[in-house]
Structures are given as C-alpha cells and as structure tokens.
What does this fold into?
Amino acid sequence: MPVIEVKNLSYTYQGTERPAIRDVTFTVERGEFVIITGPSGCGKTTLCRCFNGLIPHFYGGSMTGEVIVAGLSVKQNSTTQLAQHVGMVFQSPENQLFALSVEKDVAFGLENLAIPREEIRQRVEWALETTGISDLRTKAPYELSGGQQQRVAIASVLAMRPEIMILDEPTSFLDPVAAQKIFEVVGGLNRELGLTVILVEHRLDLATAYANRVVVMDGGEIRLSGDPTCVYASKDVRLLGIGVPKPVRLYQVLKEKGVDLHRPPLTAHEAAAMIREMVER
Amino acid sequence: MFRVFDGFRFRRASSPLHRLDPRSKFLMACVFFALAIIFTGILPLTLIFLVQIPLVLVAGVRREWLRSLRGGALLALLIFGTNLIVNYMSAGYALTLDVILYSTSMAVRFLALISSFSVFFLTTSPDDLGLALEQARIPYEFCFAFTTAVRFVPVLAGEAQTIVDAQRSRGLELEKGSFLKRVRNYVPILIPLIVGAIRRSFEMAEAMEARAFGAKERRTNLNVLRLQGADYATVLISLSTLACGVYLRYFVAIPSL
Amino acid sequence: MIQVEDLYFSYPVGVEALRGVSLKINSGEFVAIMGENGAGKTTLVKHFNGLLKPSRGRVLVDGVDTRKVSVASLSKRVGLVFQNPDHQLFCETVEKEVAFGLRNFGFPEETVLKRIDWALSLLDLTEYREVSPFMLSGGERKRVALASVLAWDPETVVLDEPTIGQDQGQKERLRQFITQLNAQGKVVVIVTHDVEFVADCHPRVILMSRGRIVADGLAGDVLYDHGVLDKASILPPQVTQILLELADLNAPRGVIDLYEAGEVVANLLRRGR
It folds into this structure.
C-alpha cells in the first residue's frame, strides 16, 4: 500500500491564474527516499505542501484531484491531524525553532498534541539520541550553528513519530560539510527506522547517495521519475536545467570520448572505483 | 543608552537565584519596586539599592547588572538634573541641601527600580517565564507570543543591523541632512525590516501548523514549575519586608524617610 | 586595488572574527573567498567598503585608508551585493530601486535615467521596470539587487553568497554574467562555499578558517589540497575527489574542470591498456 497517493492533482494559488501544479499523478511507497528536484518555480515546494495539508488548509487556493497520505485524505483532514503522520522540515533553520532551549523545541509538537509528560520526556530523549544532539539539549537557538539548528528541527519532527518526513531545501543556508551531516542523519532515519523521506533539493551531488528515487519537475508537471541512475543519464535531463552530479556527467563526457563505464556512477567514490577497475583490466 | 537592555537578557548559570521559581522571584522584584516607590528619603532608597547587591553577587550576574546600570546612568543623571532645577526654583531659587538630597534620592530610586527587575530578568529563563504564565492560567496564545517575542528580539535586532549595512553600502548616509531628511532616511531601513518580519511570521506559522499548534485545547508540558522550600522562604521574607516597610513609612514618624 | 595589512577585527560582544589577515587584490582580478560559515569571510569583505573598521591593522582601497573616509565614498568604488536581496528592497518599483544608489551618490538626473535603462537591460529586467520588487520571484529579486549595485558602475563588485537557493540554470547564467563583468575589467570578489560553482569559474581562491587565511592561490591548486580544505569545512569538487582517489595511478594534480578530467581519465585508460 503506497504511503502517499496523488491522483490528477492540480493546484492554483489564490489570486493567481496559472496553476502551480498541473494534473500530477504520483505514488510513494513506504520506506522510499525520494528526491524531488527541478528548476525554481517548477512546483516542487508546492507539491510537498500538498502532502501535509498546508495546501489547501493554510494556503487556500483551488485544489482538484486527490491526495491520500498515510490513508488519510488531505482535503478532509486538518493539518494538525496530518501532522501526526507527516512531518516537515523547512528551509530556514531559524524560523522553525520556537523555544529557548533545544529540549523545549523538540517537545513543542508533543506538547501541542497534549501527550502526557512522561511520554514526552521519553520521546524527546529518543529524538535527541537518534539525531546525535543530546549534548545540545539546554542550548538556546542563537547558540547553535545553522547545521545544528536544522538537526534540532529534524529531531522536533522526529519526536512526533511521523511515518513520512518531508524536507524542503533544508541545506540551502548550510555549508557543504553541514549539509552532508544533515543528509547522513536523514539517510540514517530512512535506513534504520524505515522512515519514508521526501527531500526537495537542488544540491543533488551530496544527496543522491541516500536516495532510491529521483523525481524531476518542471512547469508544475512531473517530467522524470525513477531510479537516480536512469534519471540522470536520460537525454532530457540536461534540458531541464538541474544540477546533475558531476560523476554522472563525467560518465557522459567519457562516453563521448569512446570510454564506456557501462553504468553512470552516482558518487565520486563509485566513479573512482569504476575507473580503477577498468584500468586494472 | 541601549546598553541598558543587555542587563535584562537572561544569562544562563546555576545559582540559588536561578533555581528559584519565577513566581517567587517576580514577587521579590515587585516588593523591591514597591518599596522604592513608597520611600522618598535618601537613606532608605540607598538601602533598598544596596540590599540588591548581595543578590547580584550570589547570582553571578555582576557584569550584566553593571551594564544595565551604566546604561541607565544617563537617564538617572537626567532625573537628577530635572529634579534639581525644578526644586531649586520652587525652593525660591535656593540651592539648599534638601534640594540636592532629594534630587539624588530620585536618581537612586530610578537605579533601584531598574536593578530590581534587571536581577529578575537576568536570572529567569524566558521559557520558565512563559511556563509561569501558563501555569497562572493565562491563555497559551499570549504565553507563546511572549516567549516568541523574547526569542526573536535579538534576531530582529541583528537583521536591522544587516539592513542598515546593506543600505549604507548603497550610499545611504543616515547621519546627514536636516532633521526631516534624517527621519526619511529610516524608510529604507524600516520597510525591509517590517516586510522581513511579516515574511518571517508567515514561515513560522507554517512550521507551527506542521507541528500541530492548536491541536488540543489544553496542552501538556515538558517541564513543570513547583514551588519549593527556598521559594516559600523568599515569598515570606519578601512579604514581611514589604509589611515592615509600609509600617515604617506610614505609621512611624521618622522624618527622613 | 584592495590591500589588507595584518587585519584584526573583534565584534563589540568580544568575538575575534579576524586574526591577522593580509592580502592584496589587484585590478581585474577574479577572487573567490571560501570557508565554513563563521570563518570570517563576510566580516572581511565588510571591511572593503568601510562598514567595519579594523581593530588592528589597516585596509587600503585604491591607496586610501578605509578609516579615513566614509562608507558612502568607499561604496562608490566597491559595490557590495548582500546575500539576501530582501534586506535592500524597499521601493515601489524596480526603477526606483535601481535609482536609489545612483541618487545617493549624487549622479546628475540624466545619467541616472540612462544608467537605469542600462542596468535593467543588462540583467533582463526591462519588462519589470514599473513592477513592485515585492511581486517578483526570489531569483528576479536577486537580479534587481544586483542591478541596483551595478548601476553606479563600481570598479569592484563583491557578491556575498550569490548561489544560495539558485537552481542550476540560474547558477550557470550567473557564472557567465560574472565572467563577463570580469572580462570588462571589473574586480569581482565572490564569497561562497559552493565548491562546484567555484570549480566551474576557476578564479583565484582564498580559503579562510577561523579568522585566518589558510590558503591563497589558483583554484586548481587550492581545491586540490584536501588537508587545507578540510580545515575550512569544504569538500573538494567531485571531479577532484575522483582524481584524488586515483592519485596512485599517477593522475595529474590540479584538475578541477569536468572536461579536463575527462581527458585525464581517457588518457589513464589508454595508458593502462
């Protein structure tokens, strides 16, 4: 049973004429790690807001078609209902931290759901451990780096035990090493806890290693969807203006020179290993 | 002059004062405040001010407390000066000892007032303050608005500085020109600041929705404030001091008070 | 020409952000300043137009000590484009936004009008002339901010994190635009941690970490030094990572360009056979 089912979804923001999403049909299975990418304005951010109810409940506008998340219809359930199944981590680290200590922030969602204190304590502990930030528990947001703040945001969402975690360009403001750490943490959650992950990203070079599916959008439609290797190697992808990871592009450059690595590598390490293997033959 | 705000920012430490419940500390600060208002003599006011010093030292917030005083010094001087002039004139243009003492005591009163609440804010975390408000049955929306404001004031201040830098880099000279021109120069600062604040609150609202804000009428809480022995002692001492103070001031005839 | 001599800078709260930085940027150079968040990159470039004054040491812009002149007069020569355009935009129309800097610097009215036309067409914004900047998309607002700085034609342009939040197409256009600016003789300084972008531009790279310069040289040399990049929390470009892993096969050093890497690998394989 897919954990997200989208059927013929179209959406137009209030006060605009052009639909931001046009007739999209799309499913996500439990335990997948999906990267959604595409040029600015393609509708990827809009699409993820359809998964947790911000569209249509927070944004209004006109939504047609069906979106079913964790068995619940998005149109008929409130954001607070959906929040217990779908968590969302936003782009700006600062604007999603509300309390003056990390502990309190991780507890925020649970407090809102009126979960008993003992259980809150347990879940907060667990979330802090799992994201590796237990030692930061008493720190205030202004004492944390951007990367640490995003990890707190992830822990806060994790504590609510959702089945799905959506991350909307979480590393935009982070340097590469901090970004890498975020993807590692999220990749770990996907692998070890079976958490379904939907990641909206431009920085495909660092994130691809953890994903098992890449979806490329453009103009409100899904243009490509599938295994990262297939998507990056497809002919149309260059036209769509996304940042195809350099190892794949190297594979394409080598092919043009008559060197065939057989399969596009997704990471630098994989590429080096493939080249070495070819040299040693 | 804005340094005075430094003396009101929570400084995290582990002193006996920090460990007190915010409600008992608030009562203590109010008692200091009340005493400083009801007394006008230089002796009692100075005493009220000095009594706070051991508290400051115990709490380990000496540096920040001094900053708040330094910031308030200008205003205190202004108060001294104004009182001096007004009383000098009403005493028949005579600079008597009484006039000087009275003006000084007004300045000392001001410092005692700042100091009493400075100690409170320096030793109480805004999260605990918010919790105290919640436990006092104030609707959660207001408590949340309060802690969020405290959380974001330094962020907005930083953003204001960045905006000033960005506009100065486009040739905006804030200090130049007539008074009217200088006021208009703040438009390029205020508009991005306000628009930014609106954008920020929109983003925050999204994040709050995504974390089920408002899901249940009655929230639960990670922490709970419980009054302990030290708190009861503080309340008792504060109230009895207030009682003594009122008695001494209004029922015992000591002229210098 | 910008000269920084043994610069130390501490913020009023006590944080020592720059600890003995010295460098020289000559006319026509293209420089990327890289390093982790908090390394001091933005603090450093704020000294170039006098927003910050040294605690110790000095900064000379075209031979003038920045402590002796106003921010406005330095900004005329060194245009600083901030990371977030929303920190600058406040006017009712894009046209007024672009005019703001020009009018502050006292350009005569006819020059102002001509420069507005020029800057708008340079950044493809002519159709938005009468539009409110707040109605534009993120990428368009970035271009308005850039246009408003280029309008007064400073000799040096400093871009603080120009690639944040941009998609590949936007980055590619930005790269071409920056290269064009540099070709026209302007000094271009970009502050960034986007290593792939820098590898594509191959400028001079200055690497900073914790308030100090830890490397300064050609992109090919600096981005190859894994040890020093690590100190600055920067990962080498992916093609470099690949070749570094193949170093024992005598892969040549200093390759950061994709096509060059392709040549190198193809040669490796031809030799290997």
